[in-house]
Give the backbone structure.
Amino acid sequence: MADAPAQPSVMEQIVSLCKRRGFVYPASEIYGGLNGFWDYGPLGVLLKNNVRDWWWQNMVLAPPIGPDGHPVEIVGLDSSIIQNPKTWVASGHVGGFSDPMVDDRETKQRYRADHLMVAAAKVKRKDGRVDELGLVSVLSGDNALADFEKRVDKMARRTGGGQVLVPEHAELTPYTKLDRAAQEKVLGPDAAQPGTLTEPRAFNLMFQTYVGAIQDESAKAYLRPETAQGIFLEYKNIVDTMRVKVPFGVAQVGKSFRNEVTPRNFIFRSREFEQMEMEWFCHPDDARKWYEFWTNERMNWWKSLGVKPEKLRLREHETAELAHYSKMTVDIEYLYPFTAPDFGELEGIAHRGNFDLTEHQKHSGAKLEYFDQDRKEKGESEDKFRYLPNVIEPASGLTRAVLVLLCEGFTPDESRPSKMFMRFEPRFAPIKCGIFPLVNKDGMPEIAEKLYMDMRRQFTCEFDAKAAVGRRYARMDEIGTPFCVTIDGQTREDQTVTVRERDTMKQERVSLDKVLPYLRERLGL
Ligand code: ATP
């Protein structure tokens, strides 16, 4: 009997829905695409902007209440993507911004060393004997065990057949944890022969370009790999021109570029992405307190997106794992479908000490010390009132946040024609309300269009008069529209419309002149 076709994984379903419904398309697809680059379609850009605006709202326009009971102060910035290249020497990116990489001498493929997972290939032969066929590597992720099984099965078939003994997830060992002698025996993920993988080595992740007409070393510049450094470069201007006092923050949302070696898992790791970063400048004595404050605040913010608390966790970095600039770092992680049962990074909150200001002061010659008038007036000593502020940095990915909302919202439901719906919180839903005339005649389109014209000033609406109303509801379920309003035959008689709620699919009749306040209240906007 032929095998039943394999069910697509949750991630495959999400990626295909994103394409089909205009959330995310592969970039330059008509030319075969470009690995690690994505375009946000008409609905994706609405979703992304909603998340961005919510972050900006909660960081810059209405930042949290600080430990002293008053709102903290944060200002916004939009700095240049290309900066003076000395920036990246000072920040350590030119010298050290690299992931350890492994090349395969046989296939010429290159992998991130921490993404290669290795286990011993074991096969149970027909006579019950267990044979070991060597160390086999696969790429980490949700398909790791299935890939492993497939590869070993092929090896088994070539040597007399048998049943593959699939290891537990926990038995997959990162390549980086093996000693060199073991590394030399590993079969690469795409190789035919074992022992062709090199030792892990550094690889710079910054994209380079040239500024001006002449393309030589002196004109070399970089696309920023993080938004943070632009903030440090403007720290002095902000202190000098704005009425900010330490502690204060500077927030920025924007594109960053990293020549990731293995971009994958859809938009999780891409080469062009967006970050939402805030640098919090504080007195060194208070840094620990603010580190804890921001860890707590940021976790609450992720919950405010409607993410289930059990799918979020905090993970403190061990000392050996800390980046060169960091004194302490904690990651906020999410249970992505492709990392489960493990979690993957969403945001990092780092205590950067005064590393960045020290380095930029040293490399630029500019004086970046802060003169703390309040502390001086309190009679504190000079080393307490003249100092380089410490920095606490909550750094998150906007495009990763979009991925989390897509994963979190995806809700299978066999009872619906669409077999699923997107359970977005109304605030983030790209379209808040669909407006449908039941049929395209009998005065219904005119009433529907008038309602649409009134409503679209308040929130994003879509007017749709095409296809059967069931198909229109199904499409709205797929894109996560919380409400649909249908104008039908009864509307002309009693001036009421049908309002359908996405999650319960319940329909209610509401009078036409009350629809707007009715929806505003339920959307919570
Ligand atoms: P990773 O370990 O996943 O490479 P990182 O620790 O280098 O990430 P940071 O430099 O701390 O990441 O960047 C802050 C945030 O930016 C991350 O938490 C993540 O949300 C986002 N981010 C980083 N790299 C990428 C990428 N290649 N694609 C999408 N988002 C990214």
Q: What stands out?
A: The longest strand covers residues 272-282. The mean pLDDT is 94. Residues 149 and 166 are 6 Å apart (CA to CA).
